[in-house]
Amino acid sequence: MTSAPAGKSRVEARDSSSRLLALTVAVALTALVAAAVGLTLPVALPADDPFGGPARFGFAVALFALAQLARLRFRAAAGTVSITWGEAALIVCLHQVPSGWLPAATLLGVGLAWTAMSLLGDRRPVLEIVRIASSLAAATALAVSVTTALGQPLLATPTPALALAVVAGAVVYLLASAWLGGVSLTLRNGTSLGAVLLAALRGKLLMFVGNVVVGLVVVALVELDARWLLLLPPPLWLLQQTYRHRLRADQERRSWRAFAEATAALNQLDERGVASAAVAGALSLFEAELVDVDVARGDGRWRRYRGDAGGQIVEREVGVPGPDEADDCGLVRTLTVGDTQVGHLRVRFPRSAPPSDRERDAVAAYGDALAAALHDAATHRELRLVTARSSYEAVHDALTGLVNRAAMLSKGDQALRQLAHDHPVALLLLDINQFKEVNDTLGHAAGDQLLRLTANRLGALARSGDLLGRLGGDEFAVLLTSVPVIGDRAAPMAYALRQAREIAERLAAPTEVAGVRMSVEVAVGVVVADAGTADMTELLRRADIAMYQAKEGGGNVAAYDSTRDAASTDQLALLAELREALATDDQLVLVLQPAVDLATGAPTGVEALIRWRHPRRGWLSPHDFIRPVENSEQLGTFTRYVVDKALGVAAQWAREGLDVPISVNLSARSLLDPRLPAEIADALRRHQVPAHRLVLEITETVVMSELEVIDEVLATLRAMGVQLAVDDFGTGFSSLTFLTRIAVDELKVDRSFVIRMADSPEAAAIVRTTVGLAQELGLRVVAEGVETAEQRSALAELGCTAAQGYHFFKPMPADKIGAVLGTLLDEARPHLFPLRAADDAS
Ligand code: C2E
Ligand code: CA
Ligand code: CA
């Protein structure tokens, strides 16, 4: 039995080699003693022995030598195990040679055979040959002792009892030789004796049985007729081939398993892990002396991972990868994936013979697995970098490097959670005034410069623990978590306001942006809360309100005021609800208020006024919601909705034969929309209402604005035939010049003049002038908000022809208006007919 070494440390090596020497000496002495004793034992050869003693001894030596020369080898745990024909030789010799001579014959035969094999190429140290020979001699001695204790097989006719004795001897020989071989393997490699023994016995079992059978058959044939032995070589040869095949299959299976394990170990996510596993795997898989794995780095440099039989792996940078050509006892495999070269694998074998084809193939396959693993590791590294970069980008604002809104929210919430429930915190929300102007006039590069500068200044002002971020556009936020807790309830707010003012002041320090000297003015909204009472979203919302208060108030800094907040949150909710209301048909309804001719009582027109039948808030008047609607994107939809409803009502009147125009109030902002005339034309067409039946009420301020788009919208509407009325006339502090610019059909005297008319000569004068002006220009005049009979007669006296107000009708639902108009027209008929008659006459 022999083995090839695997890795172990130097101290261990020295230690175990001295123990191996001791074992060798001990076994050699035992063998020598056994041989000597055996040779001196009395011999029971018959006197007429045709061969004679020396011939029989020589035969035994030759047989034992032959049994070794025809050995087979296989790799077992950490070493190579040789299996021989030893047991067959032993059984035959027990029959043919005096048993006492057998230890000596073994010593000699085995020694000669191994020396010959060593000389013929399988180089072995003398000590190893001595150990092998004496181990087997000792095993023979033990086996012989057991057999002879059970029977005397020498030249005896075989019986079952003798066969049993011989088999017992063979078993002892097997166990003893396996044990001695196992011990020496264990001493050399430090592997466990049990594992080696088990592997060796398992590998040997089949051959052992064959050996025993062959031995017994030979003995039987010799007894029967020695000429039968001539038939023996072919079956022996076959047997040998069977053993070899079986061992090779075993070995193949083992090496595939080892290969699979080694390549599986390459499945790692980092380059170092892969390369180290590759070096270790190649060292053991190919029993290599040296393994280099050179890895190509992305930057054109190479890194070499080198491992030697000692198991150490050294890693270093190399300029150029090693030569592609292998030296005569090594192999180099270039590692590529697709067209990309990822590295080299170099394996150097310990012997001088060139690597076999099998080794070449194995190195190639291993190299390919390694290439894939290295490529995967590199890809994974890239991926990690990209992920890291994008997660930085996900939380940071690219322009200023400050955390962005999302990160501000999450980091801020995290900070809030770490504070005690009642620990005060403050959030400052900053918005740069006139940032848009900088962007528009100096360009975006200047805008960016301004933002970076602001971020830098804020960064310099922030204390450790403060969270500073850019929320987007020109908005920045600072979360102050280090608000002092001492003092009364108002102290934190005072502190936060101080901070806010200081920041605003520092930011205002003049600077130069794109060659223009400027100072960064900011509006700061300040909110203070206990950490446990609000999250970042809520704090930002409040700070936002405060910031707008600061802007509106014209100052730099404003504290959050919860009373103003209630209104604004309500408005936000209202707008969301309005969206729903506009989608349904029954929430927003029109009530209608007729205006009547003061002389005849006939309806001159009907004004449509919006009401919101809110599912939760009840009836809402325009006062409750018109403002936010006007300031929202929903105005367009809202206006279309009202016009559509009003024209629906007008269409109904037309069907009932009522010829009365309907007035619709337009918000100033809807006149900024150039699409308005087309939308109204469309609605008129849909309802088949003639344009002159529609009156649009606009306020004086609109008409004054002198915006071209408004003039165009109004001109187009007029050209379509739609009538225009100026609502709330007299309240616009305007000159009347606009009436020369924009043609209108009606003036509505504001209710405030009607109310004050009786006791205010100025109010009365305005009414009178308006009426005069209207007569001059050929316009209708309607007085609004007439509540009493006195007002009515006063208006009549002043020459006003039409009026509207509670005195006549309160606004009423659409289903009532038809009947009211019908009655009004009927009652007015006596007055109207004479007029018609007069017209006809003329
Ligand atoms: P307005 O155009 O001046 O409408 C007249 C307002 O005076 C109406 O209030 C009407 O109900 C009220 N009124 C009528 N007669 C009397 C009276 O004798 N005494 C008193 N105290 N009030 C009287 P309402 O309906 O609350 O509308 C308020 C304002 O809302 C309207 O003022 C108008 O500017 C606006 N508005 C109403 N409907 C719409 C609409 O559909 N669209 C737009 N954009 N605005 C509308
Ligand atoms: Ca009106
Ligand atoms: Ca009005």
Automatic annotation (TrEMBL):
Transmembrane segments: 20-45, 51-69, 76-95, 101-120, 132-155, 161-185, 205-224
Signal peptide: none
Gene3D superfamilies for the chain: 3.30.70.270, EAL domain (3.20.20.450)
Listed Pfam families: EAL, GGDEF
GGDEF domain: residues covered: 423-562
Domain EAL: 571-825
Keywords assigned: Membrane, Transmembrane, Transmembrane helix
InterPro entries, per the entry: Cyclic-di-GMP_PDE-like, EAL_dom, EAL_sf, GGDEF_dom, Nucleotide_cyclase, Rev_trsase/Diguanyl_cyclase
PANTHER family linked to this entry: CYCLIC DI-GMP PHOSPHODIESTERASE PDEF, SIGNALING PROTEIN YKOW
Annotated NCBIfam families: GGDEF
Protein name per UniProt: Bifunctional diguanylate cyclase/phosphodiesterase
Gene source species: Micromonospora thermarum
